What we know:
Blueprint: H1 9-18, E1 22-27, E2 30-34, E3 41-45, H2 54-63, H3 68-77
Antiparallel strand pairs: 1-2, 2-3
Amino acid sequence: MPKLNTISGKKMxxxxxxxxxxxxxxxxSHHFFFNEQTRNTATIPIHGNEDLxxxxxxxxxxxxxxxxxxxxxxxxxx
Length: 78
């Protein structure tokens, strides 16, 4: 299993938009995304340019049904 690289919340938002997610609302520093086709939701915390913690990143990947291997491809393309 490849190592999970951390990224910022802003970069994760770019990746979600590439995957067909759209922002449905935001509450403070948390942005909520929804994908019409897969019916998946994701919550992304934005705290400046800080990287997302590995636990939060792992949960987001699980929420959007993206494996760690697939995430490396998406992270490289964003």
